[in-house]
Amino acid sequence: xxxxxxxxxxxxxxxxxxxxxxxxxxxxxxxxxxxxxxxxxxxxxxxxxxxxxxxxxxxxxxxxxxxxxxxxxxxxxxxxxxxxxxxxxxxxxxxxxxxxxxxxxxxxxxxxxxxxxxxxxxxxxxxxxxxxxxxxxxxxxxxxxxxxxxxxxxxxxxxxxxxxxxxxxxxxxxxxxxxxxxxxxxxxxxxxxxxxxxxxxxxxxxxxxxxxxxxxxxxxxxxxxxxxxxxxxxxxxxxxxxxxxxxxxxxxxxxxxxxxxxxxxxxxxxxxxxxxxxxxxxxxxxxxxxxxxxxxxxxxxxxxxxxxxxxxxxxxxxxxxxxxxxxxxxxxxxxxxxxxxxxxxxxxxxxxxxxxxxxxxxxxxxxxxxxxxxxxxxxxxxxxxxxxxxxxxxxxxxxxxxxxxxxxxxxxxxxxxxxxxxxxxxxxxxxxxxxxxxxxxxxxxxxxxxxxxxxxxxxxxxxxxxxxxxxxxxxxxxxxxxxxxxxxxxxxxxxxxxxxxxxxxxxxxxxxxxxxxxxxxxxxxxxxxxxxx
Length: 533
Prior knowledge:
Structural class: alpha+beta
Order of helices and strands: HHEEEHHHHEEHHHHHEEEEEEEEEEEEE
Strand content: 15-25%
Strand order of the largest sheet: 1-2-3-4-5
Number of domains: 3
Radius of gyration: 30 Å
């Protein structure tokens, strides 16, 4: 009887497993169907994009096996280059090498050279190889890798034989590996075999596994003007913009998480170092007796110091990355795709500091006429209290002049400026102003809200995030596009801080960090309620 029960239980168990297996098979088949549909859509996009740009040897559609083989070639070559980046790796007639940039503000690059053994009859095959390479080297998903590969191919089409551009924008040691007659890719298939060097612009990115990334802003800046003329160019420009926005969003979140980890590790090591130093100081009262333990502690201290140095470097790298993320987010808001142009624009907005005078001179009898006031006059009278951030951009409106520090052009709203109205008052009355982009008319301003004079200025999803001064205390505040105060944090913040916006949270990060948890305050994005770990 007992044997029968066991046998019955076994049958039930096997039936249960078979049921699960059938369900899994159904789900798997459904996923495969979805993947097939996605692949078909991507193939159509690729065909449309390349239809009129390149002259191919054949227009026969590649089968699935061929497509997978092309992607696999790129992945295998990537693995070889990653393992020995400075060597010349070869796979299926393609040679690959990498050179990181040692020069500030210049790109490094990966060079994929098509040798005489490379046999490609259609540009899509080359795009697939590059997509496999990008996917494996820089950890992008399949769809993003295909889009990046397409931009890389167009980038190389644009800069075919343009060695002068490479010399101006890439590391000199990398450029020495390029050949003027081979660099880039021609639009006709006859020039591919043995005559093509595809250059992938790369830059440092501490958030990537290998510490390197595709220089997506360089691709976007160089390719977008030309891709407009291509079939579906506007669609792909939008897709690339979405990729950039998604990347910023993901990197903001990841950088904050990793920065918190670095700070925690730094605190652990500092505490450990102090403990070792305290014990060592006690033992040094009788060095002869404690000779062995002293030697042990000194060795441990040396190890801790070494680890602290590594953490300090990692912290510096992450701070630079967070600064880059913030800068690139600002670039996108203002419509810049070139980082160099954006930095040049920022530099042009900064005026030289005026010489400080003991007693500011203000002429009361003859107030300045609005039309005659210049930008220099905005900053001519320095306030008694030092302002860290300068208000040196003038906005001439019908209602008067606004001395601004930063501005954003918001579609459907206008130009939003953080600044104050002239004439200068002490203390400053900092507000947000909306100026119409057409006639520069002052449309509205944030009334009843006194912003801190060093307040950051961030915008996300129809909301502005600023620092508000109230009863000699500073709070994080949210203002809508109608310039109305919606929420104010219930806790104070340090005005010498930076605002970083994530998907559901606002992080206020102190500029002068003390390596404690209080360096970062987190708030709910919806209503600014404090968030705790």
